Amino acid sequence: MPAPTSSLKRLVLGRPFRSDTLGETLLPKWLALPIFASDPLSSVAYATQEILLILSIGGLAYLTLAPWIGLAVAVLLTVVVVSYRQVVRAYPSGGGSYEVASKNLGSSAGLVVAGALMVDYIMTVAVSVASGVDNIISAVPQLNDYRIGLDIGFIVLLTAMNLRGIRESGRTFAIPTYLFIGGVMLMIVLGFGQLVAGHAPVAESAGYDVRPEQVGLTGLALVFLLLRSFSSGCTALTGVEAISNGVPAFRKPKSANAARTMTAMGAIAVVMFGGITALAMISHVKIAENTCDLVGFPGNCDSDPQRTVISQIAAAVFGGDHAVLFYFLQATTALILILAANTAFNGFPLLASILAQDRFLPRQLHTRGDRLAFSNGIIALALVAGILIFAFDGSTTRLIQLYILGVFTSFTLCQAGMVRHWNRELATATDARQRRSIQRSRLINALGAMLTAIVLVVVMITKFTHGAYLVVIAIPVLWVMMRAIHRHYSHVREELQADDESELLPSRVHAVVLVSTLHKPSQRAIAFARATRPDTLAAITVNVDDADTRALQRQWEQRDMKIPLKVLESPYREITRPVVAYVKNLRRASPRDVVCVYIPEYVVGRWWENILHNQSSLRLKGRLLFEPGVMVTSVPWQLHSTSRRDLQRVRPLPGDTRRGITPQRRS
C-alpha cells in the first residue's frame, strides 16, 4: 500500500516519465508561443497603465504625451526582439543571455546576467500574478479583501501545473493565451471601428479630473517625469529573452522554430500594445497612483479599487461593465496575466539548471523530477515569489518598481556580448556574402546594446528611490553567492582527486558493534560484523542505567556470546560522547587503522514510527561521520509494519507497452 505522501504526489503530478521520453516533451511552435511568450504578450495589459500612472502625477495635460512614450516603447521592443533573434540562432543551447555574456564578456559578466535574470523571473511571477488578481478584482470588487490569498493560491496552482511537465502545462496555458490575443484584437478592431463610425468609445473615468502631485513641471523635472513614465512602460519588454533561454525545448530545427516564434511574439505584442495605448487616449482613460487624486471617483477612495486601464477600455468598447464580452476579456486578461508567470516557471528552472551544471548553483537544481521538469527550480521560484507577494501586500504598483532593472541589465550585457561574438566571426569569415550578413547582425546587436544601455541608466535613475535599490542590492548578493558556491565545488573537486595514497590498505580493521539490548537486531549486527573478519571485534554498551546494564551482562554470559562485551561508563547518561571517545582511542595507536562501527537500526513501514525509533543511533551516526578513519554501517532489521509496502509490485510507465517493455514480477 503506497504512503499517503506518495499518493498525494501522484495525484498532483501524475505518473513519472522515463528519461528516454524526454524527446516527447519537445514543443511545436504553437505550444511554445503560450509557454515562453505569455509574459511579454500579457504585459501589454498593464504597460499602458504604468505609463499613464506616472504621467498623471503632473496632471491631465501630460497624458497627451502617452502616445509618444508608447511609440518609443514599441520601437525599443522591436529592436530587442530582432536582436534576440540573433541570439537564438548563434547560441541554440539554451543559455540565452547568460551564455552569451559568459562566452564573450567573461564569467563575471555572465554571473551578473544570471543574477539579473533570476531577479527578473522572480519578479515576473510576483507582478504577473498580482496584476492578474487586480483584473479579477476589477470585475468583482468584493474580492479586494482576499487579494494576498488569491495571489498565493494562484502561485501554488501554477507550481503544481509546471511540476506536471512542460507539455501538459503548455496545453493548459495555450487556450487562455490565444483567447486573450483574440479578445484584445477584437477590442482594438471594434474600438477603431466605433471611432471611424463617429461614436468613439468613452471610458467610465473620462469625466474625472486628476489632482496633480507636482504642479508646473518644466525643464529637468518634466524630462524626469517623461523618462520615469517611459521606464515604467518598458515593462512591455519583460520576458522577451525567455525564448532564447528555452531553445532546447523546441522541436527541430530548434533555432529556426525559436526565431519564428520570437518574431510572432514581437509582432503580436507591438500591435496589442499600440492598440491599447491608442484606445486609452481615444476613450480618455484616467488613472492615478493614489485613488484619492481622482476628482470625481464615485466610491471610497481609501478602500475601493480603481478599474485597470484595459478593463475601462473593454467596458467602453463592449457596451458597459455588464456585457458578456467585457467579462470575457477580463477573464482572459486575468488568466493570461496569471499564466504569464509560466514564462518564468520555464525560464528560471532552465537557467538554474545551466548554472548548476556550471557549478554556480547547487547541483540539485540540475536534476529533473518525476515528470522530466526541473522540479527543485520550480519550487524555489514559487517560494521566493510567494514571499515577495506577501511582503508587498500583492500591490502591482509597488512590485513593478523592482521589475525593470534586472531585465535591462541582462539585455544590455547580452547585446554587448553579441557584438563581440560577431567581431570574432568577422575576423575569420572570408566569403563576401557571409561578411555582409555578419556586419548586418553586428549592427542590429550594437543598436540593441546602445538603446538598452540608455534605458538601463534611465531606469536606474528614475526608479532607484522607488524600490529599485533592492534589485541593486540583490544582484551583487546573488553574484557573490554564486561565486562562493563555485569556489566550494572547485575546492571539493581538488580535495577528492584520486591519488596513490588513497589506494593503500588499512593496517588493521577494528569492528565495534553497538548494543543496548540483546535481541534479534543486535544478533544480526554481530553476525554481520563477524562475517567481515575484522582484526578485532567487540560489542560495546553505554551504562546509562545500572539495572539494565547488569541484565544485559547476564544475558551475554548465559548465551555464551563469542565476542567480549565492553561497558562504557556515562555518569551524565550520555550515549554519543562515550562511544566517540572509545572509537578515538582505538585509532590513536595507529593512524592507518580503520574502525568500523555497526549500528542496528529498525526499518519501519509507517512514517510516524520513525519518530519512535532510531533517534539515538541517528545522533551517534551524525557525530561519527566527522571522525577520520571511522566507517559507520547501519544493519537494518525490518519490523512487521514494513510488510505493508509491496516492493514486488512494478507498475508500467507511460509508453512501456508501445516500446515492448513488459514489467517483470519477482517470484
Could you characterize the architecture of this molecule?
This protein is an alpha/beta fold and 667 residues long. 60% of the residues lie in helices and 6% in strands. It is built from 24 helices and seven strands. It has helices spanning 4-13, 29-42, 44-55, 66-90, 96-105, 107-139, 147-163, 166-197, 219-233, 242-245, 254-282, 309-318, 324-339, 341-357, 375-391, 396-400, 404-428, 432-463, 469-495, 520-531, 546-558, 576-588, 609-612, 615-624, and strands at residues 209-210, 294-295, 509-514, 536-543, 565-569, 594-603, 630-638. Strands 5-4-3-6-7 form a five-stranded parallel beta sheet, sandwiched between helices. A two-stranded antiparallel ribbon has the order 1-2. β3 (509-514), α20 (520-531) and β4 (536-543) form a beta-alpha-beta unit. α6 (107-139) crosses α19 (469-495) and α8 (166-197) packs across α12 (309-318). The model is unreliable at 18-24 and 647-667 (pLDDT under 50).
